[in-house]
Amino acid sequence: MNPLIASEAAGRLAPTALSVNLNKVALLRNTRHLGIPSVTRAAGIVLQAGANGITVHPRPDERHIRGSDVHELAELLRRDWPHIEYNIEGNPFHNLMDFVRVVRPAQATFVPDAEGQFTSDHGWQLPADIERLAPVIAETKALGVRVSLFMDPIPEAMKLAREVGADRVELYTETYASAWGTPRQAEVLAGFTAAAEAALAAGLGVNAGHDLNRDNLADFLRAVPGVQEVSIGHALIADALELGYTATIRDYQRCIAAAYPG
Ligand SMILES: CC(=O)[C@@H](O)[C@H](O)COP(=O)(O)O
Ligand SMILES: NCC(=O)COP(=O)(O)O
């Protein structure tokens, strides 16, 4: 069983924080010039329902989250939800740093995506990426922003992630999600457990994300130690289309709580 984890933001014992990724609300909004569904309204409702954070991934092509969304969400959180963590994801060698320098979110998650990439599908390559990552990690931390590196679950890479200055890693969980419910689930999950243990041993915090959902979340959190934050978007917003935002958030929080019995 994973230990309960002191939440850095609230200084309280809490299980894994749920950070809701709003990319897909913006994707639907962008298909008409009507401004609905509202990204900021979605943020307010999911936070009211018990979400612990907000995540956005403002891709350079603005297919979903636009620059205006990033700033409007920053203002909403600053005004109404000052203790809620804002996590902005992106490639620091594309447009991410423009947002980090102005918004100064609680966390920046560096993702090595190409500009037109269909979706995120791999982590950083360490040591190959160390030389170019080091200065931008240092700049981000000097701005008071926590740095999380989007990483494949490779135990040997975790010490290098710490050495390049990362505060946390976000384990890319698509391979787990694809294996969930198949005979390979235990084997794949063991790889994530080893990667998380290596990250913790290196002094890193552990986040996780990509293709997590209500079915696979609890099994992941039961097996993988010390997960401080899961960022979930695609499946959660799909669920909200059927259940509504409030019921969906409560369902995901139930899945998280189920991983921490007692
Ligand atoms: C980094 C990651 O796995 C996701 O946070 C990413 O935001 C997904 O991007 P799309 O929503 O554009 O697929
Ligand atoms: N970092 C993962 C994230 O923010 C959302 O990923 P997904 O749930 O949309 O696959």
TrEMBL record:
Enzyme class name: transferase
Residues involved in 1-deoxy-D-xylulose 5-phosphate binding: R59, H64, T119
The EC number(s) this enzyme carries: 2.6.99.2
Binding site residues for 3-amino-2-oxopropyl phosphate: N21, R32, D211, G233, H234
SUPFAM superfamilies: Pyridoxine 5'-phosphate synthase
Catalytic reactions on record: 3-amino-2-oxopropyl phosphate + 1-deoxy-D-xylulose 5-phosphate = pyridoxine 5'-phosphate + phosphate + 2 H2O + H(+)
A molecular function (GO) term: pyridoxine 5'-phosphate synthase activity
Active site: H57, E89, H210
Pathway where this protein functions: Cofactor biosynthesis; pyridoxine 5'-phosphate biosynthesis; pyridoxine 5'-phosphate from D-erythrose 4-phosphate: step 5/5
InterPro entries: Aldolase_TIM, PyrdxlP_synth_PdxJ, Pyridoxine-5'_phos_synth
Highest taxon of source: Bacteria
Chain positions of site Transition state stabilizer: E170
Alphabetical UniProt keywords: Cytoplasm, Pyridoxine biosynthesis, Transferase
Compartments, record wording: Cytoplasm
Keyword Nuclease among record annotations: no
Quaternary organization: Homooctamer; tetramer of dimers.
NCBIfam families documented for this protein: pdxJ (TIGR00559), PRK05265.1-4 (NF003626)
Protein name: Pyridoxine 5'-phosphate synthase
Organism: Aquincola tertiaricarbonis
